Every structure is written in structure tokens, then in C-alpha cells.
């Protein structure tokens, strides 16, 4: 308990420093600003703003990126409620009842409950991370190369199983992602791999280039194909504070959503996406009158919003303690950390405690700031929502170009985002999701390294992965999950959950 | 059987998976061809070629399964997308990278025109990718956004991005500081954006007046 408190106070002393406070604020503000724009979700936002943080020190840049992430998430909920366009998968559920409330002139209450619920969930999740960080890191420090390889396999399998859509296609995308990570000079042998003899590929594919291509540019191409229909609420937003009745209805869903989100978020898969769906389903089951759902029930906003924020935050746990990113945003975080020279994993907490605890404390600070940024400035966000997409995407495009160019001053990098954008667009057209590809790409190098090391230690015997007990356990869990996801009955249930 | 009745095109009942399968097989084939000379090594001393080749075969396997499933299980159609939009976006990106600084591709070297040309160029070319594009709006947007980018990235953040065409920089008298030129031209551009915006509105109003 004492170490827990001293760790937290170390964290707050870092996070409350003037520079870090400013960066957290800037991150939250910019994240909200871009996250509010319909059609631009958190992943695209972070990918776009990644280059800006390169000039900062590691702690500051991670604090700012985390701020951008929460900001974009909050902004996405605002868009979901006011325009009925969920910025990303986690606010799909919010749009159902939130937008109905807005149509009835209760947008203010919906926004306020979403913000307050998220703040509460964020605070609890911060404590959960702080409490679980140390013990999980201790476990992770016992892992050797063999265990790490199996752990990464399990992380990737969970990511496939917990996401919606075809299992086969997701597996294929992960494999392609790992394949892309092998492009460039092989560190062990010095051979050039799949570089076409091009000099700028000999360092491998730049992470920011790939991320911006398949998330930024491909998203623009995808959005252009869909005709724009926006249904911005014309009704006044209404009182920004929920009344006593609304608060009474919301507090239990907020508590349940927080609990569910915190647990699901820890899973190294896409727990943050699953949590709001699960919370919505639970609130509907528990409600005395389930028919209210879909027509503007405040519980349908309070529960899922808390769940998604708690899940978003606890999904940092596998990243910070084990070094395994659970979803696309965490993959971007790994990219940012690697660029700053930090290898994600248990050694971050032991070797760089001020960064680790500072980032955790900044999560709470960021959540508080978002509460302050979002509620009073809602009028500004509403005005932003009226900017049509035909003016927004050229601006996004220009920012992407400048951002990528500023990293290495290489025009070829800019061309590559166009190329990856097209590849990403074609893959989306064929029904593939880009997120698993990025996850595979981020884990690819680590996987190869650990696999090599494990095989050297075992003198070339593959059986080491099943004779070491921890590794065997992890692989068995992955196999069971994968088989379960393919079995028709379970599949059906899983698909239904995502449809609902 | 029923699905076959619905889809008279014999056999192929999941065009999206069909295309996806082919795409995966092509990716795998390319990777296998590129890694043909790399040494796979042995399990106890993995060479550089081992993992890429294993992965390529695994991708190929996924592709084959997807390809075969397209004939067995009905699935989504392949939406016919308009390729004009994506191509214009790529053109815009290439225009940016060709003009931001001198770039040599084979025998050709593009003139380095700097941010002040590259950003408006990419906005206007890229903006045309939308079906509802209006050229005047795009001009206002590029006149307004370019100075903001100049001020934020080159003035405040001090990133080493060329702003002006190289030929123009040589013309400037020695005594002028680069920053003040940057700020003055940014202000001029913003003023131009405002001017175009308001004249556009007036003529737009006049047009609608005439039509009534």
C-alpha cells in the first residue's frame, strides 16, 4: 500500500510539472478538436499527430499522445450524440440512445452524463492500472524469450478473437503485417530483405509512414466513396447539467460500465471495443422497461460511455507491463515509444519509473481536463461539426504530408503514404480490416527476435515452446480460443453480440 | 442449392472473398520471389530468409482457403468503387512530395518550390477527389490553410521544412530575415483568402439573385 501511494505521488509530481501539464492539455484539446470531426477517429488522429511529438522528451510525448487518445475518444462521443456518426467502433452504442436524446432536446444531459461517467470511469481505471502495474510487471520480468514469443502469439490470437468479422481475414492481415515488418536490413545477418534494392527501404518500413498510409489516407479514400449524410441536431442542446432524476438513473449503469470496461480492457485484444457493447446489452437486460432503449434512455449512454473509457484506459495495462499492444491505438503507442528509444515492456517500470508513473498519473489529469474542456466548449464543437467533409479531407491530407515530411525530410516517405494508402484502400475493399495488420507489424520484429533467441537456447528444437510450462500454457489458451472462435455455434453468438 | 439459384454466375458466390484470396496469393508470391536468394538457415541458427518465407507461405495458405471458400460459401459482393477519387488523392500526395524540395527521379529533377506551393497544390488536386468539390472553396481553403501551416510548423515549431521556392529565396535582399518574410507572406495570404471568400460570396449572391 505504501509503495502504491509513493508510486502514485511520484507520478503526480511528474504529471503536474508545468511542461507536462501543458502537454497534457494541448493533447486533450487537439485530440478533441480532431476527434469531433466526423470521419476522423482516434487512430487516424494519433497517426496524424504522431510526428508532432517526436521533438519532445519521451515522458512529455507519451503524455501528449495519451491526451490525444482520450481527447479523440471524448470527441467521438460528442459526434455520436450530436450527429449520429460514431467516430469509431467504441462509440457506436452511444449513438443509439445518445442521438435519440439529442433529438428530444436533451443533448446537454446526454453529453454531461457521458462526460461525468467517463471521468469517473477514467479515475477508477487509473487506480486499477496503478494497482495492477507492479505485480504484473513482476510476472513479466520472469519471462524469457520462449515465454515472450508465446505471449505475443496469445495477444495476437486474442486480438483476432475479440474483434468482429472474419477470423481468417484477420489472421491473414496479422501475417501480412509481420511480413511487412521483416522488410529492410536483417539485424542479425545484415542481409537486405525485400527492399527492391531501394535505399530508403533498407532501414525497414517506417512505422509512422505505414500507420498514416493505412489509417489516414486509406480512410479518406474510403470516406470519399460514401455519400455524406449528416444529421446534425437542430434542437437546442438544452441544460448542460443532468437533473436529479437523470443522475439517479445513471449512477448504477456508470458503476457497472466502469467495472465491465476495466476488466475487458485488460484483455490483450480489443477489449475497449467490446466493453460498450457488453455494457449496453447488460443495461438493457437489467432495465425494468427495456423498450425505452433505442428511444433515448439515459442508461444507454451512461453505461457504455463509462465502459468504453474504462476499457480504453485499462488497455494500457498489457502495453505498459508486458509490452504487448492490444489494439491499433496501443500499436501506435509502441511505435511512438520505439521512436523515442524506449522498448515497451516490464523494464519500462523498473528502469524508468518517472515515465511509467508519470504517464499513469497524467491519465487522471487528462480526464479531469477533458471534463473542463468538453462541457463549457460544447458550442464550439457543434460549430465544428458543420464543416463539410469536402473541405476537411484536403486539410487532413495536407497535414499528413507535412507531418510525414517533417520526420525525415524525405519526399519518398510522403510518396509511400500514398502507396500504402492505396494498398490499404484496396484491402478494405476486399473486406480486410487494417488494424490487425498494424498490430502484426508492431509485434513482428520483437517476435522474430524472441523466436531466434528461444531457438538458439534450445539448440534448434521447436519443442521448447511446448515443454516450457508457462509457454505451453499460453499456447494452449491461444489454441483453445482460436478453435472456439471458428466453431460455428460460438461464432454465431459472437457475431450476434456485435450486431446488437 | 438455394444460394446457387440466387447467383446465376456459376460457382462464384462470394466475390469479395474471391478478390481477397487473389490479393493474398499475389502478396505471398511477391514476397517469395523477393526472398528467393535469402538464406533460410537452420532452426538453431535462423537465417534472414526463414521467417519471411514461412510467413509468405502462411499468407498464401490463407489466400487459397479464402479463394476456395468464395465458391463454397456465399458472401459479400465486391462493391464497385470509383477509382477516380483515390487516384486524385495519390496524385495530390505525389505532387506534394515532388514540389516540397528538389527530388531526383532518374534523369529528372523537380524544382524545389517549398511549402508555399506544395500545400495549395495538394489541397486543390486532392480536393477535386470529392464529387462535390468547388474550386473557389478550395482556393480559399488553400490560401487560408497554407499560412497557418507556415506559421505553426516553420515559425513556431521550427521544423526544417523549405517554405519558399529556391529561386525566390535568392532574390530576397540580404538584410531581410527569413522569419519576417515568412510572417509577412502569411499575412498577405490570409488577406487574400478573406478577399476571395467575400468576393465569392457577393458574386454567389448576385448569381442567385439573377436566376430568380
Can you put this structure into words, describing what you see?
- Chain A has about 500 residues and is mostly helical.
- Chain A has helices spanning about 1-15, 20-35, 40-50, 60-85, 90-105, 105-140, 145-160, 165-180, 205-225, 245-265, 270-285, 300-315, 315-320, 330-340, 345-350, 355-375, 380-385, 390-410, 410-430, 435-455, 465, 470-485, 490-500; strands at about 185, 190-195.
- Chain A has a two-stranded antiparallel sheet with strand order 1-2.
- In chain A, helix 10 (about 245-265) crosses helix 11.
- The longest helix of chain A has about 35 residues, at about 105-140.
- The model of chain A has no long low-confidence stretch (mean pLDDT about 80).
- Residues about 1-10 and about 205-210 of chain B have low confidence and may be disordered.
- In chain B, strand 1 and strand 2 (about 45) form a beta hairpin.
- Chain B contains 8 helices and 4 strands, in the order H-H-E-E-H-H-E-E-H-H-H-H.
- At the A-B interface, helix 8, helix 9, helix 18, helix 19 and helix 20 of A face helix 2, strand 2, helix 3, helix 4 and helix 5 of B.
Q: How many distinct helices of chain A?
A: 23
Mean pLDDT score of chain B: 81
Distance between the termini of chain A: 42 Å
The ordered string of helix (H) and strand (E) elements of chain B is HHEEHHEEHHHH
Low-pLDDT runs of 5+ residues of chain B are 1-9, 207-212
Unreliable sequence segments of chain A: none
Number of domains of chain A: 1
Strand order of the largest sheet of chain A: 1-2
Radius of gyration of chain A, Cα only, in angstroms? Answer: 22 Å
* Helix percentage range of chain A: over 70%
Number of helices of chain B: 8
Mean pLDDT of chain A: 82
Strand content of chain B: under 5%
- SSE ordering of chain A: HHHHHHHHEEHHHHHHHHHHHHHHH
Largest sheet of chain A: 2 strands, antiparallel
Distance between the termini of chain B: 60 Å
Quaternary state reads: heterodimer
The outline of chain B comes out as: flat
